[in-house]
Amino acid sequence: MAAPAYAQTRVGEAAVVKNEVLRVAGPSTIQIKVGDGLVRDETVRTGIDSATRLVMADSTNLSLGPNATLKFDRTVFDDEHHYREVAVRMTSGAFRFVTGHSDKAAYKITTPLATIGVRGTTLDILSQRGRTIVNLQEGAASVCTISFECIQLTRPGDTAIITSGGRKIDDQKDQHSALDVCRNL
To answer: Which long-range contacts (CB under 8 A, 24 or more apart) does 144-150 make?
Structure first.
């Protein structure tokens, strides 16, 4: 595969790789190894019984459980260790998101059903067909539906469940084995 004609900005790297973790480039895929760099507009996908932890340039940690797909939509740097803006799209699967050194307003996380804003945060996120679950572990977060109805998560254990038909808030932790995989990376 030929290299692109423009220089791609490295936004992070793979810190942990368990089994099948792929860089998706159109119809082709390439196995990601520990230490491999990640670039803007890149899609990462994990296979069955697979997981990865990605560390961004600002020390943000993104863990992906089995059968997860994530895309780095946008990154704008203030300097080499801080983002002015970083947008991550979590299409499907289980994720753990731990903010790094950038200003918390710089982060934008999206799923097919929700947009998540963070404030010094550790979040577990499950994005499935017709449902997104966001569980706050630490900090605070705002979870907004595609129709801009927002839920504020302010206490550890607060959970927002967004469905294609509406939303609900659940104060109990949602237990999913895929989320447990992300917690342990």
So the answer is: 144/114, 144/115, 144/116, 144/117, 145/113, 145/114, 146/113, 146/114, 146/115
